[in-house]
Structure formats: C-alpha cells, structure tokens
Amino acid sequence: MKRNARKRRTPPAVKAIATVAVLALGGGLLAANFYASAHEPTNQAGTRTKAASNRIVAITCPDVRPRLGTVPPAIQGEIDRELAGLDRQTTAFNQRLAAAGEERAKDPQFIENSLIRLLQRSRTTVLQRIPVKITQAGGTAPGDLLDLARCTPVPAGQNDTRGQQDGDGGPKGGDAGGQAGIGPTAADFVDITKVRPNVRAKAANRRNASTGTFTTRCGVNANKLRNSDNVIVAPGVTNGAHHTHDYVGNQKIDAFSDNSNFLQGATSCRNRNDKSSYYWPVLRVQDGTQEADHDKLGGGKEGNIGRILTPKQVEIKYVGNRNGKVVPMPQFLRIITGDAKTTTNGLANANANWSCTGFEGRVQLTEQYPICPRGSNVVRTFAFQSCWDGKNADSANHRSHVAFTDRNGVCANGFKAIPQLTMRLVYKVAPPTIANGQVKNPYAVDGFPEQLHKPATDHDDFISITTGNLARKIAKCLNRGQRCA
After folding, report:
1. Which of 5, 13, 24, 183 has the most beta carbons within 10 angstroms of its beta carbon?
2. Which of 101-110, 154-163, 434-443, 476-485 has the lowest mean pLDDT?
C-alpha cells in the first residue's frame, strides 16, 4: 500500500493569526523551537513526534512579581490580586494539560496550539493592564512586561518514567507515586548516609552580640487548621496559594484576614500574647490516600495528592544577632522565606533545609529530599530574614523590606537587626523506595503544579501579631543573652 505523504494544510488565516500572536508575545522562538529538538525525531513539518509531546508534564510561566518594582500602597492589594489571577490561569491550563490525554494523542501540536498560545494571550491582557494601574495610582510603570507572557513546556525528568505516557497519551498506570510525571522524581531523593558533610561552622559572636533565645510553643497543628489561601501574597483571593498550608499560632487566618481583625483571633500558642501566624506548605506521602481535599482546588485538582503528615514536633525559636543588639519586630510584619517557584525562578531565594535527625549538624539539603535511615526522622528547617528596613511591615514584592545579614551578622543598607525567627519541623516518614529509576511512596511538599514538587520550592510564611508588649520582651530577652520561653 502506498503511504500518503501529503501534509495536513493549516488555513492561511489561522496560521497568520497564530504567528502574529506568538511573535507579539515575544514567543517567536517558542513557536519555532517548541517541538524541534536535536534529541527528538521530527516529521517533515519540523514538529516533534507524538511521543515527544506526550512527555510534556507541565507548563511554566515567568514570575511577574520581581519585575514590578515599587507599587503604590493604595493599590498593592489590587496588584496582588492581578498576580494571583496569573497564577490561576497557569494552574487552569495545567489542569487542562493533565486531562488532555486523548487530544494530545490525536494532535502532536495540541499543547502548543490549544494551550500555550491561549495561555500567553490571556497573560498578555493582564500584563498590559498592570502598568496602567500602577501609573494611574501615581507610581512608576515597571516597563514592558510582555516578555513575561511567554510560557514554556516542562518535560518529565529523564530518570522519571512516571512522566512517560501509554499509547493513547494518558499517564501510565502503576504505583510510582501517582503523580503522572509532575513530581517528585527519583532524582529528587538521596540517601542521607551517602551525602558528604556540608555544614559550615558558624562565625564567632562579636562582643556586643545578642545571644539570647526566645522559644514559643504553638503546637503541631493537631486541630488541622488548613487552607490553600495566602493572605500575604494574595489577599482577598480564595485558593491564592494553590497548595495547602498548615497553620499554628493565630487561628483566624485566611485570604480575607487583615490587620483590622488579626488581633481578634485565638492562638494555639501557650503564650496567649503570641497571636502571630506561622504557616507552611503541608508535607504529603503519595501513598494513594485520598485526603479530604483530593477533589478540591489546592489539593488533588492541582496535583497535591496523598496523605497529609502532621509534624511530630514544631520548634519555633527567635534568636539574636551575632554582631549586635536587635530591635523589636514591628506589629504585623510579614516575612516570606524561601520561594515557592524556584523551578521557574531559580534558586536565588531558596531557603529551606532538609535533613534527618542525627544528621542535622553535618548535612543540610536544599535541592533533594533526604531518605533517612531506620529510627531517624525527616527535618525541615527555616531561618528567616533578620534585617528590617525600619519603616515597612511589607513591600510590593513581599521581600525587599527585609533581608539577610552577611555571615558576620551585619545588616547592610541601613537595615536594622531584628530577632531572627527559626523553625524546625520534624516528621515521621516511611522511607520511599527507588528501583529502576522510579520512586514508590515518595513524600513531597505541596506546591504549584508546574513547580513539580521540588524540595527547593519549600517555603515558610510569618506574620508578627503580638499583644502585651511581647515584641519588646522578645528583643530584651535576646539582647540580655537569656533563654526565655
């Protein structure tokens, strides 16, 4: 039988519209190279094969927040909601990608034509609107943001066969974690007993150092106060985090909380003057368990699946500054440490450490989850920024009002040293097993679907809310070198 070599013809009008749209978004290279690769077989049209298309497990888009600069306070919440809308768009298209097995099987260009290009057009509308709003509010426009409209496909890791698809384009079955390629992968785990020691000795304290500690005991969230909001980065937006948080401390925290009602909340802390909110992404074991949120946004609908683990132990401690005295934290100070989008943004703001009990003084990991030996527990630790600009309780990017000290404890740029919040979360986790490049029953932090549940995306959030002059008492304890609780 003679093979039909005719190519399917794209109508000229459709082809022209698509080309103009992609080029207008700075997406010309994406359009040209999305399916072309030196490592993949191509057909006469220069497009990837169906198998190559099927290995795409997510769509990722640039983070807009770092480019905004100063946002007028009057519209900060409005801009936060616009950015949350961009996150919702990306999540929605990733959900469509996950459900598109049949369409992907029929059309190798489905991801490019029906998902990425449409997502970029949607992003363009928002990215054109944001600078106008900033200018109208009296701020300085951040410049052309349209290059941030361009989104890219994320292929499954080479060692992650869970990203492969079966013949009809759907995810392969099996028990390799149940994530259909969106992570974590076998490469995301390491046997901690095989990692060389990497913990550096701390610099010595200066003569005027504030050497005290203040411990606050707020429980382990045994009452399961959880939601997928993030009142810091997406105020007024339900499911603004797109993943589930554990909360301890303040019990009145959701997307619609604010400075006017934070103090009305009860607290899980033993010190009733500590109404601060301490929250972090939950840790799950992908063992097939269907949690209460398995069919909800923030949970299973966004790739956050499996059994949520309650920590065995949560240690919250404020420590001093090795260079000098600290000033009290201001009321309602907000700090985010780490970055939920390191898979997109890179590791510049990654700030979570993973280890195992018995190994913490020798090995700390950022880019891999530890596999702990028998009798040892998984540990997540965070050390927050401890320099403050002395003026603002928050900033447009939720980062620039605070900073880290240098190695000697010095705060730069006129910033003031404040008590450093440290957190240590301990979990009893059955070690995942790895065989033939697959990981069974992995554990992972919740995250955005396109971030692939990488350990470096771990992060921690904090809002300082105190009564009874507690903020001053904490600073005084540290400055006097005392051990307080």
Report:
1. 183
2. 154-163
Partners of 216 in the beta sheet? Answer: 316
Omega of the bond leading into 184 within 30 degrees of 0 (cis) = yes
Please provide the DSSP assignment of 13-77 as one string: HHHHHHHHHHHHTT-HHHHHHSS--TTS-B-TTSPBPHHHHHTEEEEE----GGG-----GGGHH
CA–CA gap between residue 78 and residue 88 (Å, rounded): 15
The pair of structure tokens assigned to 242 is 């797109």
In whole angstroms, how far apart are CA 195 and each of 24, 108, 356, 359, 380? 47, 41, 12, 10, 17
The Cα–Cα gap between 415 and 210 comes to: 16
Provide DSSP, 362-407: T--BSSSEEEPPTT--EEEEEE---EE-SS-S--TTSSTTEE---T
Apex CA 303: angle with CA 302 and CA 308, to 5°? 105
Are the C-beta atoms of residues 117 and 18 closer than 8 Å to each other? yes
Can you point out the beta strands (E) in 120-181?
152-155
Which amino acid, 2?
K
| Better-scored residue on pLDDT, 41 or 215 | 215
Q: Does 29 score more than 70 pLDDT? A: no
Please give the share of the chain, as a percent, with pLDDT higher than 90. Answer: 72
The values of phi and psi at residue 98, to 5°, are -65, -30
Separation CA 364–CA 455 (nearest Å): 12
3-state secondary structure of 225: coil
Query: Residue 294's Cα: distance from chain center in Å?
Result: 19
Tokens of 198: 């990497």
Element (H, E) at 253: none
Residue 135 has pLDDT above 70, yes or no: yes
